[in-house]
Amino acid sequence: GLERGAKNQFSTFNNFITTINQKKEGIGNRNSPTQLVIPNIRNVRDLPPICLDVRQKQRMSIDTLPQELKAPVPPEPSLPIRTKTVKDFQDDVEKAKSSGDWKAVHDFYSTTFDSFLEINAAFKKDTNSPFNTFEDSGINAKFVNVVYDALLNTPQDVQKSVLKGVINGLLQEWKGPRTKDDLRAYCILLQNPQFSNTSTYVIYAHLLRQIAALTEADHHFLVHWSKKISQRRFKQLVDRLLQFISLRLFPAKPEEFPPMVKCTWWIPSATKVLALFNAANSLISPPIISYTDFYNSTLDHIDLMEEYHNWQCYGNSHRFSFCQYPFIISIAAKKVIIQRDSEQQMISIARQSLVDKVSRRQKPDMNMLFLNVKVRRTHLVSDSLDELARKRADLKKKLKVTFVGEAGLDMGGLTKEWFLLLIRQIFHPDYGMFTYHKDSHCHWFSSFKCDNYSEFRLVGALMGLAVYNSITLDIRFPPCCYKKLLSPPIVPCDHNTLVGICDVTLDDLFQIMPELAHGLSELLSHEGNVEEDFYSTFQVFQEEFGVIKSYNLRPNGDKIPVTNQNRKEYVQLYVDFLLNKSIYKQFAAFYYGFHSVCASYALLLLRPEEVEILVCGSPELDMSALQRSTQYEGYQKTDLTIRYFWDVVLGFSLDLQKKLLHFATGSDRVPVGGMADLNFKISKSETSTNWLPVAHTCFNQLCLPPYKNKKELKQKLIIGISNAEGFGLE
């Protein structure tokens, strides 16, 4: 097979193409199983370039189209009659393996893949049924899988006959719109495992180009049909497309491919087809594969800012940029784009301040290049609020924090300390801005009404400053918060436009108030009489400062009983009230605060989950990676104490590892760049070994006494990390 060392199996494939029968007879005959092939596939007519603008397409829902699209449906040609079953095929393969006579198998493959009609004749579940709906592709998936699984174990001439047939099908003269049989053939051909081999990439590229050039209506059928592919094979298809893009960008053997200038359409075509699979994946809950499986880490090594600027300048034109398809860009690459975009904005703002100062013939001051925040520890929140409100024009400058009455330059440590102390104080339950839900371990916005929501704007600005200045915060918001934060991702020009309002579901409520969500779920699944058993109306009650207040979910909701017929509407209105309407003013202030710092087209590239990772870091811990990147002061990595330390830490449970990370850095989450970005340091503490370890969270530093044995180190370390509350600031 292709994967088992037969590297030269298709090494002469270009020669093979040139030796295929050069006549074009029968190309127009769709029913002929013996259509002939043009010798050089590179000479096939050009199709229009493929380009998709994320600012237009990404926000459109596939489900908004009607089930039966109004595009004209061409008549389906009659299919040849093919009666071979899965068992018949498997018997043929077994006989061929034992006898060495592959003629029957060869004939099946060469006939089946010779044209789109033959592909449908072999793999369509019922040749007499049209299968023109989103719900059923009509493909006998089991037969397709068996045929493809056997293909790579057949002799070389069998595999070449399949590729010859694929070329035949791709070179047909298309007249008018595609039929559903054509779409089925494309769907089946995409799953061909031969396309994992670089020697077949020329054919694969032309297949991708034709699929990418289909109409939007046809794409919707392919998207919905792709949802039915098994997880393993879906992942294989995605990985194959990602590999194709990577090897075209950075080929191991450039001579294997045509020159880049002659195949500039390869990558756009593959990316657009990948977008179809991404759309299919997003239509299912839970998704077939993780959104991170669409990341192509190869893109981390290209000029990302050029991609970003091309997208900004030519977003609506035919000029391709990976930023038009942000699902393919890894969170690490997106962070680079956001950081560099932030740096450019910082430089631009600072330069303008300098020019303004010089133009007024005033002496320039280096402090004007920074956002200088001066606060008193005793009035931390009020001072911070005043400073950020007064210096709103400077929010996009580099942040520098000073604590009044204290010596010390801010080299990053004071900034991080300011964030840690401020977040800790604002999120304290006594402060009243946020409610902590113990069941879900997260904070949510208090629905209490007040006259001034400026402090919510401060929290939003803090989150924006953290992203802007690459600081990871220990904030526990539910995923729904980040979805609302990107609704919309760009602040609307019309201030009357609602912001922070998004579609919310019972699943979103489960992540915040699981007990209440469970109760509503019970209401939905109740088999008795809802009106008599629950005795509820379209009304909710909330306690505000000791007073119970009622709110109608619908006009006159207090007079509308909840019944079996309207309970879904009741639950949806209830969830929308809790997560959108009851906290609208609080969240709107928070939204404007965040975007006052982070206003950038780069936010269009982000998913809500990715915003959360940028703000809070990733929950995935890799202590071995932390060990490799740790720096030492007073210790060598070969010292006995250090060896004891890592033996103990690597043997910790995940919960204890998180406690250690929180103890040493102020957060149990990892920056986007991984453990190496923590700049974690272990310093030798010259105190008595009776002392517990000490951490300087502002510098991600752990001070470790030279304990005499592993047992003592483990005991003291667990006591320290399990009982750490507050900041031991020296």
TrEMBL record:
Q: Which GO terms describe its biological process?
A: protein polyubiquitination
The source's domain of life comes to Eukaryota
Q: Which UniProt keywords apply?
A: Ligase, Phosphoprotein, Transferase, Ubl conjugation pathway
What's the catalysed reaction? S-ubiquitinyl-[E2 ubiquitin-conjugating enzyme]-L-cysteine + [acceptor protein]-L-lysine = [E2 ubiquitin-conjugating enzyme]-L-cysteine + N(6)-ubiquitinyl-[acceptor protein]-L-lysine
User: Pathway, per Swiss-Prot/TrEMBL?
Assistant: Protein modification; protein ubiquitination
One matching Pfam family, short form?
HECT
EC number(s) on record?
A: 2.3.2.26
Broad enzyme group: transferase
| Coiled-coil portions | none
For this protein, the record's InterPro entries field holds:
E3A/B/C-like, HECT_dom, Hect_E3_ubiquitin_ligase
Q: Which residues belong to any copy of the HECT domain?
A: 391-730
The active site of this protein is located at C698
Q: Name one GO molecular function term.
A: ubiquitin protein ligase activity
- Purpose of the protein: E3 ubiquitin-protein ligase which accepts ubiquitin from an E2 ubiquitin-conjugating enzyme in the form of a thioester and then directly transfers the ubiquitin to targeted substrates.
| Protein name as it appears in the record | Probable E3 ubiquitin-protein ligase HECTD2
Lineage of source species: Eukaryota, Metazoa, Chordata, Craniata, Vertebrata
